[in-house]
Specification:
Strand content: 25-35%
Number of domains: 1
Number of helices: 4
Order of helices and strands: EHEHEEEEEEHH
Radius of gyration: 15 Å
Helix content: 25-40%
Strand order of the largest sheet: 6-5-4-3-7-8
Length: about 180
C-alpha cells in the first residue's frame, strides 16, 4: 500500500499558531529556526485514501478561496495565516506548513515551517514558491475567539491520537475539531 507522507508533526503545525502575535518573516536561510524540532515534529504517514484524511483535504479545498480572501485582507484578529503545501520529489510526497506566505506574481511565496522527512530540496526555514493548486490545508489564529481555525488535516491526525493529546491541543491552541 502506498503511503502519503504528511508533515502533520503536531508541534510543527501549532508553531504557526503559537506565534500568533508575530508577523515577522521567517529567519533568513542559514539561521536557526524559531525552535528546535521535537518528536512531535516528525512526519506522520497516512495511507493514501484514508477516509478521515480525504474528508479533511476536501474541507480544506472547499474553503480555500474564502481563507485566501480573508488572509489577503487580514483583519486585526486574524494572526499567523498559514498554508500547508504539497511537495513532490521523485516518488516522495510531503506536506509542509508555510508561513508567512504572500502572493508573488500569480503564485505564492513563503517559508517552510517543518523539517522535511523525505524531501531533500528543502530544509526548515527555507523560502519556497508554490501555486494555489499545491495548497492542501490552511489555518490561522483567531485572536478574538482565541481559537485556531482550519487545520483540517491536523484534526484528522489528532482523531487517531490519545484523548489527552487531543484535549491538550484544544486547551493550548484552541483547536476545535468538529465531527
Amino acid at each position: 500500500m502506498k503511503k502519503l507522507v504528511l508533515v502533520c508533526g503536531l508541534a510543527a503545525m501549532f508553531a504557526c499558531a503559537a506565534a500568533s502575535a508575530q508577523k515577522s518573516p521567517a529567519p533568513p536561510k542559514g539561521q536557526p529556526p524559531e525552535k528546535a524540532p521535537t518528536a512531535l515534529d516528525k512526519a506522520v504517514q497516512v495511507p493514501r485514501g484514508d477516509p478521515a484524511m480525504e474528508s479533511a483535504l476536501k474541507r480544506a479545498h472547499d474553503s480555500l478561496d474564502g481563507f485566501l480572501e480573508l488572509a489577503a485582507a487580514a483583519p486585526a484578529h486574524v494572526k499567523s495565516a498559514s498554508v500547508k503545501v504539497r511537495v513532490r520529489e521523485g516518488k516522495n510526497v510531503e506536506d509542509f506548513w508555510v508561513t508567512p506566505f504572500r502572493p508573488e506574481g500569480g503564485a505564492y511565496g513563503g517559508f517552510l515551517r517543518n523539517q522535511p522527512a523525505t524531501i531533500r530540496k528543502y530544509k526548515m526555514g527555507d523560502p519556497m514558491r508554490f501555486t494555489k493548486g499545491d495548497i492542501v490545508d490552511w489555518m490561522y489564529m483567531d485572536d478574538k475567539r482565541k481559537r485556531l481555525v482550519g487545520n483540517y488535516t491536523g484534526c484528522a491526525v489528532l482523531a487517531k491520537r490519545p484523548v489527552a493529546e487531543r484535549e491538550n491541543a484544544r486547551v493550548q491552541f484552541g483547536l476545535e475539531c468538529e465531527g
